[in-house]
Design brief:
45% helix, globular, seven-stranded parallel sheet, 17 helices, seven-stranded mixed sheet
Length: 369
């Protein structure tokens, strides 16, 4: 089978999940990845990957997600998507040249729309779909916003033939077409042997915008050595060591860390819990990240703080209870890789012999042109 695997390119979590299942798919099928910028940079060295545009957040002068800038930056691409304009059709042509039998998408809208437009079976496999296809325990005050974001997600992706949702916390699917699996862990993470060191590991998915004076002061005052990934700074400053991106280096530092302080992406939280590391989750201004951070608090594997107002008191209180949080991770480890691969292989076999997707009566709403 020829599989087009489309990957959202905002941040690295989508690419990490993809990298965990690609080797198994590539052993049985011909796979080409169509990935946005961040994901393409991570995947292209080891996989057949083509870069495509990405629709992502934009930031304001104080490091927060800026709705106005996000809308302004993405408006031309969204408009082109809605009418299947020239830029969208250029991406579709790249996919059509590959002649896929199946499209798998990790939160990536061009792939979904291409498959729907051409009547190609498609599988949605990601984490964000949890808001669209599952019953969620949203953070206080986020229930309406969560439903809104779930509808927005479906407006961009439509309704795939099959849906697989990966998450480090449990969620109940809304219908039988949706299946949930545990954390999708990269092989190096699965092979890592964790030890309890004394280092606090900090990861920021967009550190150039998120690392601020308050965070710097809190980390300096925490009384522990700190390794920071995700910023543009490099080298040592007092108890802080700023490192360049490195998959192997990061996994080694994660396995040896005392605790993790990070933005609240599903993938890193999954890896931290698997390795028994307590987490201080600092969600971005996004419902999905607040949902993840609330799950960390509810499961007892860590707590949550304010990304842009991290205080020394919050960080010290977290570290004071780190062993209790670490012990709680034992009950929440669920490696979903094998389960996800089996579901993907079954769905590929079923869809390959079944009816092709055709636009439904709500195609104008779901983007199925």
């Amino acid at each position: 089978m020829r599989i087009a695997y489309a990957v959202m390119g905002y941040g690295r979590g989508h690419a990490m999940r993809t990298a965990a299942v690609l080797p198994a798919l590539e052993r049985r099928h011909q796979v080409r990845v169509f990935a946005g910028r961040d994901a393409h940079e991570m995947l292209r060295a080891e996989h057949d990957s083509v870069e495509i545009p990405v629709i992502g957040y934009q930031y304001g002068p104080h490091g927060r997600i800026c709705t106005r800038r996000t809308l302004q930056h993405n408006a031309p691409r969204v408009a082109d998507l809605l009418v299947a304009g020239p830029h969208t059709r250029a991406v579709w042509q790249q996919m059509a040249d590959f002649e896929p039998d199946i499209v798998i998408s990790d939160s990536e809208t061009y792939g979904h729309r291409f498959a729907r437009h051409h009547g190609i079976p498609r599988i949605g496999f990601d984490h964000v779909g949890i808001m669209a296809y599952c019953h969620c325990d949203f953070a206080p005050g986020d229930a309406l916003a969560g439903r809104r974001d779930g509808l927005g997600y479906r407006a961009f992706t439509g309704d795939p033939d099959r849906v697989i949702v990966s998450s480090f916390y449990p969620a109940t699917p809304r219908n039988d077409r949706v299946r949930t699996v545990g954390a999708i862990l990269r092989e190096p993470v699965r092979q890592a042997r964790p030890v309890r060191g004394d280092t606090v590991l900090v990861y920021l998915n967009k550190g150039a915008h998120q690392y601020n004076a308050a965070m710097d002061a809190a980390l300096r005052a925490c009384g522990a050595p700190v390794i920071v990934y995700g910023t543009r700074e490099r080298g040592r400053r007092d108890n802080l060591l700023f490192k360049a991106p490195s998959q192997a280096g990061f996994i080694a530092d994660l396995a040896a860390a005392r605790a993790v302080v990070s933005t609240a992406g599903n993938q890193l939280l999954s890896e931290a819990i698997h390795l028994g590391k307590p987490v201080l989750a600092l969600p971005e201004d996004a419902v999905e990240q607040r949902l993840n951070a609330e799950a960390v608090r509810r499961m007892g594997v860590g707590t949550r703080g304010a990304l842009h107002r991290l205080t020394p008191g919050v960080l010290r209180a977290f570290l004071a209870h780190d062993q209790t949080y670490a012990a709680a991770t034992q009950a929440h480890r669920r490696d979903g890789v094998r389960e996800a691969i089996d579901l993907l292989q079954d769905d590929i076999a079923t869809l390959a012999t079944g009816a092709r997707s055709t636009p439904g009566p709500l195609a104008w709403l779901t983007g199925a042109y």
